Amino acid sequence: SKSAYKTERDPNFKELSEQDLAFFKSVLPPSSIVQDEDNLSNYNIDWLKRYQGHSKLVLKPSTTEQVSKLLKYCSDNRIAVVPQGGNTGVVGGGTPVFDEVIISTSNMNNIRSFDAISGSLVCDAGCILENLDNFLAENGHIMPLDLGAKGRQVCQIGGNVSTNAGGLRYLRYGSLHGNVLGLEVVLPDGTILNNMSTLRKDNTGYDLKQLFIGAEGTLGIVTGVSIASPKRPKAVNLALLGVDSFDQVIATFKRSKDELCEIVSAFEFWDQASINLVQKHLAVGSNIPLQSSHQFYVLVETSGSNKEHDDEKLGQLLEGLITDGIIQDGVLAQDTTQIRNLWAIREGIPEACSKAGAVYMYDISMPVSVLYKLVEDLKTRFQEKGVFGEGKLIKSVTGFGHMGDGNLHLNVEADAFTPEATGLIEPFIYEWTAENSGSISAEHGLGRMKNQYLHYTKAPEMIDLMRRLKVVFDPKGIMNPYKFFPSS
Ligand code: FAD
């Protein structure tokens, strides 16, 4: 394992026996049970190929009742379980560490209902995010979240909820903590918690669903999701800007908010090193419609209902930014194809990183004023140690992210995932984040990558209360062990 810390299999967890398999076969048809090495391998390794598990069994229930039977059995027999959605997570949360049984929600993919008046969508947890968005588009609505992990990669709404995924529409629609209206969850003992409310308001007691949002499969398995979907904006505009310093990126952000006000729906940035990676590894990299290269690139998106009004506002903003020398270049997408192409450049960055080899991905939130300073400080650190550049231990450092949410994605391309490379980056990066009042995980979660570092963002009393809550939901500790909490 290339995990950040060494851990041993908990001997209290039962090893699978023929009897266990016989039970699973009594609940699921043969086609929903994966046991052969070839097929298992895809479930045992994460998208970044950093965390290798050793599960011998994947179960793919198609109903909530099946999930309930499986979990109850695992709980009664103390069999460790890893819930898995689309397996696009980037912190090693969705893959096993040892021989945990994987319960995949891939066969749970029905849309249960859609209310065109309120916009509430009720569906199974295994529905693919992109399919849900396409379904809503036909009905004039939009999913309140959008990630680069759609399309060829197939993140599922249950995985999105379990990681409290942020993504590209966060600035406009906010967090899943606000957009999820209800959840159906199976607890480890098989209890089905049916809270599939479609109400926007409900102040009756503790809002239990919130605990499962971002719980990374440590409390139970999410089987159903009810989510508020806004109306799909009628007019969408996108501009790509070339900017020569990060201070100017900040100035552009401020001006965009001031002038575009209610219609600004996304503000993303990336640096020159990010575009270098995209150009090296992906075809979309040759599609950058700016005249020269820049230190930074910005995408400003507007979403509204009156195209003429939005065009005018965005046009004026660009003109002003160029006249005042805040941006050096800018282009307005002319049609939906160009909008798609520009987004493809931005969304291509994580994919390009994955093709680059051993890429350590960090995901940090902090005050916007210092958002890029970590990238610079890290580069300086590597330079001073003489480990930075082609042919060296660390090949590149790239920064991009959701500027509007104060969220930096920082990627370090190393020769290989080695303790030496890890030691150059961690805990430096986490110490830096704590000193700057940031969070070590803005949106990816803790999983196996950051569980040991939780204390950089959360106080001991909070970690202690989290542990006590975990025992209430999962007294036998079978749900997604070895992750999320620091090993003590
Ligand atoms: P998985 O990877 O399968 O699982 C993630 C975690 O949730 C695991 O801990 C797993 O045990 C748990 N889990 C999954 N399903 C369930 C369930 N039904 N019940 C209980 N627990 C469950 N993330 C962002 O937030 N913003 C981004 O912009 C973003 N961009 C990305 C771009 C790319 C190219 C890629 C590959 C990833 C990106 N991610 C991003 C990370 C990832 O896509 C998200 O974390 C996503 O929400 C994970 O969904 P999934 O279905 O793949 O879940």
UniProtKB/TrEMBL annotation:
Required co-factors: FAD
Keyword hit for Oxidoreductase: yes
Name the record gives this protein: D-lactate dehydrogenase (cytochrome)
Highest taxon in the source lineage: Eukaryota
Family matches, as Gene3D superfamilies: 3.30.465.10, 3.30.70.2190, 3.30.70.2740, Uridine Diphospho-n-acetylenolpyruvylglucosamine Reductase, domain 2, Vanillyl-alcohol Oxidase, Chain A, domain 4
Cited PANTHER family: D-2-HYDROXYGLUTARATE DEHYDROGENASE, MITOCHONDRIAL (PTHR43716)
Species this chain originates from: Lunasporangiospora selenospora
InterPro entries: FAD-bd_oxidored_4_C (IPR004113), FAD-bd_PCMH (IPR016166), FAD-bd_PCMH-like_sf (IPR036318), FAD-bd_PCMH_sub1 (IPR016167), FAD-bd_PCMH_sub2 (IPR016169), FAD-linked_Oxase-like_C (IPR016164), FAD-oxidored/transferase_4 (IPR051264), Oxid_FAD_bind_N (IPR006094)
EC number(s) given by UniProt: 1.1.2.4
One term of GO molecular function: D-lactate dehydrogenase (cytochrome) activity
Keyword Cytoplasm: no
Family: Belongs to the FAD-binding oxidoreductase/transferase type 4 family.
Keywords, sorted A to Z: FAD, Flavoprotein, Oxidoreductase
